[in-house]
Amino acid sequence: MKSTIRFGPAFATLFISMKAGDSIIVESGAMASMSANVDIKTRFNGGFFNAILRKVFGGESLFINSFHSNSDAEVVLTQTTPGEISEIELQGTTLCLQPGAFIACDPTVRLQLAWAGFASWFGGEGLFRLKLSGHGRIWLGGYGAIFEKEIQSEYSVDTGHLIAYEPTLSLSVGLSGGIFSSFFGGEGFVTRVRGRGKCLMQTRSMDGLAAWTNQHI
Amino acid sequence: MKVELLCQPASSVAEIYLDRGETLTAEVGAMIGMSTKINVETSTRSQGGQGGILKGIKRMFSGENFFLNHFTSNADAQRLILGPKIIGDIIVRELQGESLIIQGSSWLASTGGIELDTSWQGWGSAAFSGEKVFWVKCSGTGTAIINSFGGIYEIDVDGEYVVDTGHIVAFDDTLQFSVGKASSTWLSSLMSGEGIVCRFKGMGKVYCQTHNLSDFGKSLGPKLKPRSA
């Protein structure tokens, strides 16, 4: 199975060419177009109970799709927002994804739901997070460009800009500064990332766009 | 008449060179800039075409404006710049007697030799596709200028191809168009989040856009406050 990312960075789109017997796990609703011989199988996202929890508290899709083909085929996958798509190869490592970032992964990658904590929920990031582990490629998307940051001890990220992080990092929600600057400086809550490891951030956030749009309604 | 695309792909505009007597019909509000010897006329009918009020009303159903703007050049080498409202790409398609069906909001402009009509795609697609009932049908000889949300990729269909309803930009009318389920059963199609897809059969081109404007709207919508009266 070969992957190509085209139309990046503004409109990154994932073109997957499949050979007979290939399959790929795809986020619900991410398919833009595909060959007619591709078969879609749908299952609960991480088991029935987990899927419902994720839907209600995590803002994630209830179902996840497996695309399978018995002959040469092409699948075109995309994300809701304009922006970049990153391909990351997991080699026995684990990556935690924020709601909405997941697009697709190889079937060898394990998808799990993990408790993210109330701090994450207050920060607007959902009660659960998606944990991807094992071996294989994963594709994740961001609104705007995606950049990587190596964290040594502690780092603050504006809520809504964090899209993925290594599990060696822990998240908590805090104020960006004092009470005054936090609320009048427009930064409000920030997500504090502690530990050693890397995190991925998106250069735009839907909350930011919504806040700007709201001023004009 | 010559069309040049500038600032592709994210913020594309089309620059059109018009010689004396040449005309172009464009979506209302698409003009960004133009030379002074171009005459603009607003009407409900396509230039030299049939119809009138009725076609204007049909066009409103297709997501287009009731009115159309006609640009006619009174001198040689006049230039006109057109741009769509949303970010994304633009393509130019030359028609030589064939017909192209364009999704309501993707039609940007077409030259005088092209007859515009709104095309009824059948009850099935109207009820389920979530897209506009009417599409704009361009036929004749000339140039059609089409815009998209995101990039545009072209698929040469030979047999069958599946496109999510929100990703169709335009297609040759030599293709058979049917609306159906994404996977083998209705239950799993609805669960898959792909819901209803369009199946194109036959031979011809389908132009798809990389992003879905209505999905983007749905992800922004819930974050917006109600409009203050």
Task: Describe the model.
The complex is a heterodimer of chains A (217) and B (229). Chain A has 217 residues and is mainly β. Chain A contains four helices and 17 strands. In chain A, the strands form three sheets. In chain A, strands 3, 5, 6, 8, 9, 10, 11, 12, 14 and 17 form a ten-stranded antiparallel β-sheet that branches. Chain A has a four-stranded antiparallel β-sheet with strand order 1-2-7-4, with no helix packed on it. Chain A has a three-stranded antiparallel β-sheet with strand order 13-16-15. In chain A, 41% of the residues are buried. Chain B is mostly beta strands. Chain B has helices spanning 53-61, 123-128, 186-191, 213-220; strands at residues 2-6, 13-18, 23-27, 31-34, 38-43, 68-73, 78-82, 90-103, 107-111, 114-120, 134-147, 152-164, 168-172, 176-181, 196-209. In chain B, strands 3, 5, 6, 8, 9, 10, 11, 12, 13, 14 and 15 form an eleven-stranded antiparallel β-sheet that branches. Chain B is globular, with a radius of gyration of 18 Å. The model of chain B is unreliable at 123-129 (pLDDT under 50). The A-B interface holds A 6-7, 10-11, 13, 27-29, 31-36, 38-42, 61-63, 65, 76, 78-82, 206-207, 209-210, 213-214, 217 and B 9-10, 87-89, 150-151, 153, 155, 159-164, 167, 182-184, 188-189, 191-194, 199, 206, 208-212, 215-216, 218-220, 223-225, 227-228. Strand 4 (31-35) of chain A pairs antiparallel with strand 12 (152-164) of chain B.
